[in-house]
Predict the 3D structure of the following.
Amino acid sequence: MSDSPMNSLRAEQQLITQLLEVLKQEQDHLVAADIDKLTALTPHKSDLVAQMGALATRRHKALDALGFAAQEAGMEAWLAAHGDDGSRALWQQVLEQTREAKELNRLNGMLINKHLSTTQGALQALRPQAAAAAVYGPTGHTTSVSRSRGFIAG
């Protein structure tokens, strides 16, 4: 039974718990606009997501080897046939934590977009305005007239 879908599921649950903690820290750093701490979390978050993906693939392969669909519906069917209350509860916990992680990630994405928009607005304000107004010259073609401030020496 070493290739049981439950082996991967237990490990997935541990990782999703860690990921939730990282996403909460990420949100705190986004709210505080602490880019250094935020940047330091990114590799850890990416590693957790990669590990979770590998475990989900392993669980799907185990399900397939046992004659069940290699997807979440297959896990439901396997649990109906072979699971106990504890394994079904663990599955529901993983599904709930996954939904929570997706929502936290969505909210964090919104915070990132807000910071990005604010930063772009600030950068735009610092850029010189297109002070050149297009006017028609004596040849009938448009020319640019720069509005510049003259220098007066006194």
